[in-house]
Amino acid sequence: MVDPAPTDAEVIAASLADPTRFGEIFTRHHDAVYRFSSRRVGVGEAADIAAEVFLRALKSRHRYHLDRPNCLPWLYGIGVNVIGDHLRRVKRRNRIYMKAQETAVNHDDFTTPLVDRVDAESAAPSLNQALGRLGRKDREALLLFAIDRLTYSEVAQALGVPIGTVGSRISRARRKIIEQIPHLRQRTGDGGTDPDKEAPDD
Amino acid sequence: MTETRRHPVDLALRAMTTAFEPSPADFELSRVKLMDAISSASPPSSVRIRIASATAVALLVVFAVSLIQTASTSPAAALITELAEVAEVTDPLVIPDDQFAYFQTDSTGLVEVGPDALGGVDIEHDSLFYSLPQTRESWIGNQGTVRLRTHNLPPVFFSAADEAAYYTAGLDQGDHIGETIVKTQPDTNRILDERDWPTDPVELEATIRSVVGDVDGDVLQECLGLIREPLIPPELRTAVLRVIAGLDLELVEESPAGTGTFSVELDESMRLTFTIDATGHLIFEEVVLVDGYPDLGVPPGTAEYTANYTVPRLVDSADLP
User: Fold this and answer.
1) A48, B13, B63, B206 - which has most CB atoms within 10 Å?
2) What number is the ipTM of this complex?
3) Percent of chain B with pLDDT over 70
4) What is the percent of chain B with per-residue pLDDT over 90, rounded to a whole number?
5) Mean pLDDT, to the nearest integer, of B181-196?
6) Residue B16: its pLDDT value, please?
7) What is the pLDDT of residues A160-180, one digit of tens each?
8) Which residues of B touch A47 (CB under 8 A)?
9) CA separation, residue A90 to residues A97, A108, B94, B226, B272 (Å)
10) Is the confidence at residue B61, as pLDDT, over 50?
11) Residue A190 in contact with residue B10, Cβ under 8 Å?
């Protein structure tokens, strides 16, 4: 009988004494982290972001909760911070440009890298802008759940918050987006129903 | 637990975003970086601490306490704390119905223009960089509007070729060089309105870190964003200054009039210098690219952004002189 592969937590525990073991974490999860990054910053920067995620993970592996077998949410949580740093640099550059151009900007520049992928016809105001107007924490909770397909508990793990906080952040984020883009409510063709009361499909 | 992945917002988000698969080269790039880091990695600090002797731990604690005491009494911290105390008793700027808060900003920003915006004009590097000086006057009323009068001066270039490309591509028209532009618009882009900012310094710092993260440079920039606001209440200004005093700053210069100029590294290659006047107002800030962007033709020491601000004062009219 073949022994089951060690869990991520077991590999990380082993890597505390033998850092080379951390390479297994990279092999297991690099592609997922790359996809996570590419969804947020596009293909051009995803490789650098993914690389940085694993470098930071290596440095902070001693803080990993070894009672969590799957470390992907943890890596995504690091990814959120890496991308946050990256976007702050972009934002700073944009802010300087905006100052120079004297353009009033009333929203966060978070979504600049996503702008190019938004369907122009649906962008008035665009989902992209609506996302940018969310608080950072609400936005991240929603994105981790909606596009990275984490569960609430995994989102909580990634962001280091209680699970109840995740629910309220996601709910608030959706509500604010729909306030700005009311036609989203009708997209499902069941106009009039409260989207937050849909039946779960998980 | 209700997890509704068919929520229309979720569906729209998924439709909007695309995930890409890494190429073998992407994978290899990341793997090599990680292997390099692993090869130089030592067991993490928590492991080392576990095996450290009690004596070593005690020495570490003494050293840490000493560092904290040094930081809390650094010249920069002491001066900013003094400024905070003065700011606390400074009268707030209240704008009557028939008056406006007026201030002037003289700034220079580094501008990057990508090849797509150059209409086929060749440039030496991947992007065209130049510094764009600007003067701006602002009149803020108490009804939530601001009148801005902006004048862009001719840019400063890093090479004659850049300058030629700039004018050949007609960027001077887009930058409105030499023109004076007047706008009256809602005063909506205010960091003050983004949330309820606590006036207790500890709570304020926690709030700021919850917004921008734990990098001190980002905390400082958020703080400067707050005290850049002309209508910030004195108690919040004081709290912001106390937060700044707790950061690791270098005192560059202290004038007899009580003005302090401070400096700090941002990231690893940027230096932020700012000046706070004797009443706690931000009157100067500059971000310098220590190494520049050599592969893009931007020399070391280039300022990414420089600005001088006048202290807001009340004026009777927003009519343009």
Assistant:
1) B13
2) 0.75
3) 83
4) 29
5) 74
6) 78
7) 776 667 777 888 888 888 888
8) 22, 26, 29-30
9) 11, 11, 35, 20, 17
10) no
11) no
Q: Which residues in chain A have their CB less than 8 angstroms from residue B152's CB?
A: 100
How is A136-159 classified by DSSP, letter by letter?
HHHHHHHHHHHTS---HHHHHHHH
Closest Cβ opposite residue A195 in set B7, B44, B215: B7
Alpha-carbon distance A82 to A88, whole Å? 10
**Confidence (pLDDT) at B131:** 92
Measuring CA to CA, which residue among B3, B7, B210 is closest to residue A153? B3
Residue B63 DSSP SS3: helix
What is the per-residue DSSP string for B3-56?
--TT-HHHHHHHHH----PPPHHHHHHHHHHHHHHHHT----HHHHHHHS-HHH
Query: pTM for this structure?
Result: 0.52
Q: Which long-range contacts link B85-88 to residues 24+ away (Cβ below 8 Å)?
A: B85/B238, B86/B258, B86/B278, B86/B279, B86/B280, B87/B234, B87/B237, B87/B238, B87/B241, B87/B279, B87/B280, B88/B234, B88/B235, B88/B238
Note the pLDDT of residue B129. 86
| Cβ burial B21-36 (10 Å sphere, 16+ → b, else e) | ebeeebbebbbebbee
Q: For chains A and B, count residue pairs whose Cβ atoms are closer than 8 Å.
A: 198
Would the CB atoms of A146 and B210 count as touching at under 8 Å? no
What mean pLDDT do residues B173-197 have? 80
Which chain A residues contact residue B47 at CB under 8 A? 16-17, 62
pLDDT in tens, B200-211: 999 999 998 887
3-state SS class at B273: strand
Q: Which of A183-197, B209-223, B283-297 has the lowest mean pLDDT?
A: A183-197
Per DSSP, which regions of B141-269 are E strands? 145-152, 156-157, 180-186, 250-254, 260-266
**Which among A92, A103, A104, A84 has a CA at the least distance from the CA of B110?**
A92
Residues of chain A with pLDDT under 50: 95-124, 187-202
In chain A, the domains with their CATH numbers are: 7-105 (1.10.1740.10), 111-192 (1.10.10.10)
What residues in A contact B4, CB-CB < 8 Å?
195-196, 198-201
The residues that bridge with B134 in the sheet, in sequence order, are B107, B152
Which tokens is B10 given? 């979720």
How far apart are the C-alpha atoms of A116 and B251, rounded to whole Å?
A: 43
Q: What is the dihedral of CA A136, A140, A146, A148, to 10 degrees?
A: 150
Domain ranges in chain B are 24-72, 74-315
B4 and A196: CB-CB below 8 Å? Answer: yes
